[in-house]
Design brief:
The protein has 327 residues and is α/β, with parallel strands linked by helices. Helix content is 42%, strand content 16%.
């Protein structure tokens, strides 16, 4: 009895062997220099090794690689992964959204699993995601995310969908140990039906950050059925070396890209429907990022971050007028 027979028996449905779902795992990776490429490349190798040892293997593993150059020892490690299921795709322009869309366009699976390159997974990771799709009403699955600072799951929380609607879903506790309905698919660990992701246009390439939240909201507005499953768990190492979102966000003061993605996401997604909530959120963010004690005590820094804030707002509005960059 194979995996599909088991989930068929559990769900009470008959699954024709011709209808077995194919799985594509997509990983995007980026390291801007040799030093970070060595550390991040080693972790990517470890992850690929874990993916090849799954109880239910993926039909393909796509790595969209935006790293300019790897040290020789990492290249030798990758050569050890002589497996026809692993496909490396080089992308010159570093962009998390373009890389994820590129992987989606190249994929052949029915179910797409997106994971970061710096996670650890157990041998039943793919099967945990796949089990959910025995229910044909489910379009996407958000998996549990543990990390070094929060290594243990939280106790079961109330099965609430909104968490202070409309913005509360952003703060969904990904360490939860309770399966529940969800709105948010976190980019570190989620799966989705390929046809569903294509139906909403994939990732918006105007974004450098918050791309998973923006996608989640579009899916929610389209009526997609999303769930959170703690069994589909990863341990996120949160490596500081490399990674596009870290380079953009972990700066002494937020970058223009950081501000621009923030404005673009909130204005595009919420301003028309929730104007009061959106403007209040902008006010709180202005206080947090601009009028904080550190900036006020250093006028030259205050001027710099205020200029970035205003410039990013203008750029975000321009992109919204032009329209989203979808597939």
């Amino acid at each position: 009895m194979d995996f599909y027979d088991i989930i068929s028996k559990m769900s009470g449905n008959t699954i024709n062997t011709k209808d077995k779902l194919k799985v594509s795992v997509i990983i995007t990776t980026y390291s801007p220099c040799i030093n970070s490429a060595a550390m991040r490349g080693q972790q990517l190798f470890n992850l690929l090794t874990q993916l090849l040892r799954q109880t239910i293997p993926a039909d393909e593993i796509i790595v969209v690689d935006q790293t300019p150059e790897y040290p020789p020892q990492i290249g030798e490690l990758f050569k050890q992964l002589d497996n026809k299921k692993i496909h490396f795709i080089a992308q010159e322009e570093p962009s998390i959204t373009k890389a994820r869309n590129r992987g989606l366009k190249e994929s052949k699976g029915d179910i797409i699993i997106y994971i970061d390159d710096d996670v650890r997974i157990k041998e039943d990771f793919i099967s945990a995601h796949l089990t959910n799709y025995s229910d044909e009403s489910i379009d996407g699955v958000c998996g549990q995310v543990l990390c070094p600072s929060q290594p243990e799951p939280t106790p079961p929380l109330p099965n609430t969908l909104t968490f202070s609607y409309p913005f509360g879903f952003i703060h969904f506790p990904f360490r939860s140990s309770r399966r529940s309905e969800s709105i948010l698919l976190v980019g570190t660990n989620f799966s989705i039906r390929k046809k569903t992701l294509f139906s909403v246009g994939g990732f918006d390439e105007n974004l450098a950050l918050d791309e998973d939240m923006e996608l989640s909201w579009r899916l929610h507005c389209s009526g997609a059925h999303l769930v959170f499953d703690p069994v589909a768990s990863v341990f996120h190492l949160e490596m500081q070396e490399g990674g596009l979102s870290k380079i953009t966000s972990l700066q002494p003061i937020p970058t223009i890209q950081h501000f621009q993605s923030f404005f673009y996401y909130y204005i595009k997604s919420y301003l028309n429907k929730y104007p009061v909530h959106t403007l209040w959120h902008f006010t709180i963010s202005f206080r947090k990022w601009i009028m904080n004690k550190s900036n006020i005590c250093r006028p030259q820094l205050l001027g710099k971050v205020l200029w970035r804030f205003i410039l990013a707002l203008g750029k975000a509005c321009y992109l919204i007028i032009k329209g989203p960059k979808l597939l």
